[in-house]
Structures are given as structure tokens and as C-alpha cells.
Specification:
- By secondary structure, the chain is of the alpha+beta class.
- It is built from 7 helices and 6 strands.
- Helix 4 packs across helix 5.
- The chain starts with 9 loop residues before the first helix and ends in a 14-residue tail after the last helix.
Amino acid sequence: MHLGFLNSEVDEISNAKKTSSRRNFIKTAGAMISVAGLAPSAAFAGNKKQGFNGTGRMGMSTGEDWIDTFYTGGAEAIVHYYADDFVFEDITLFQTIQDKDELYRAFLPFGKGSPAGEHQFDVLRYDGGMAGDRTAQLRMENPGGYSDADWHHWSKDTFLGADHSYDEWCVMQWIWRGKHNVDFLGLPAIGKTTTTRGITFHCYQNRKIVRESTFWNYRDVAIQLGAAPAPNKFWLKK
């Protein structure tokens, strides 16, 4: 999603102050979430120390820590959650990053107070566990039906980071809600609010992200901005 703000003034975004806690804002606004029928204070009470700076198994609090730091701490804070050798991939935008300076610039539009707009992210579900003896298994050879150039083009980013060992993994599903102050992916978006879902796969080594793959529903955003028609759900019963 980050490259959607290529026309944003990065220097202006970098200088924007990121103040106040997103969690405090949500509580002040009276927003509530529920996990297995529990209020947040009860649901996460036993997991507060399991974020990126904690100990023990990673869990939902890891996702909360990642999302909160991404929003309230901004680019400067969140890049430290990534290992020195890492791969960041936004599949929707065919965007792959392995350099922390580039990652920092890609994250700039999404911090609190960014001139690009206000962006809220909330983790809905966390599935994960210890990696055990599982590592990446790759299909490097062209299976046929592709030219060598096409096979390389479409597969190379998937293979990046396959040599990075990891001890835990997770899949997080989340919601992104953004109020846009600038156009998005070339679509008129100023003053509009869009909401969509996404999913992120993480590989962790020593509580640092070594591999991230994210996919989010661009079509829903385009529909909300009037740039694409809603799908014809022909399979539904009348």
C-alpha cells in the first residue's frame, strides 16, 4: 500500500510530529474490541509482555505492538522491528524492499499526523507458532508455459529471503481505514475515507521480522473511490 503515496511530499511527512497514543484515542472515543467476548483489558491482560520487546511466545499482542508502533511511533520506530537482513514485500503493488532507508521512506505516509491523511490499522486475527524444522521450500525451475524472462519476473521476489532462518511465524489479518488528504494510486481520493482488509505473513528471528509478505484488497479501495464496479456476485442465491 505504501507506494500509493508516491506523489506525497516525503520531507513534509518526515517533519510531521507524531503525538498522542492511538490506543488512548480509541479508548477516549469509546471504541471497543472483543476477543472471545472479552474486553481488551481482559483479553490481552496475560500477553502484554509478548510484543517485540517482550519474552515468550509471540501472539496477538505482537500484532497489536506492530500496528500501534507503525501508527504512533511512525517510520523511525517501526524500522527497528525488522532485522538487519530482511525482505519486505507488498504483493498488491509488486513492491519489495531489503534496505532500511527505503523501508523508512515507504512507511513515512502512514504515521499519525502525516500530511497524506489519517490511517487506522486494526489486527483482527493472529495465527502463528514456533517454526520448528520448517524452512522455505522453493520451486526454482521453470515448470513450462512461461518464458524464462516471465518466470524470473514473477517468481524472483518470492524467492528473496529464503536463506533467512526464522524461529517463529505468523499470519495476521487486519483492517485498514484511511482518510485521504492526497490522491491514492492516481485515483481522486482527497477528503474521502476508504476501508479494506489485508493479510500479512511474518517470519521472526530473535523477535525481529526477517520476512514480511502483505496482500491487501485494492479492488475494494478502487470501488469506494468510484474507479471500479462492484463485483457481480453471481454465485449467491436470489
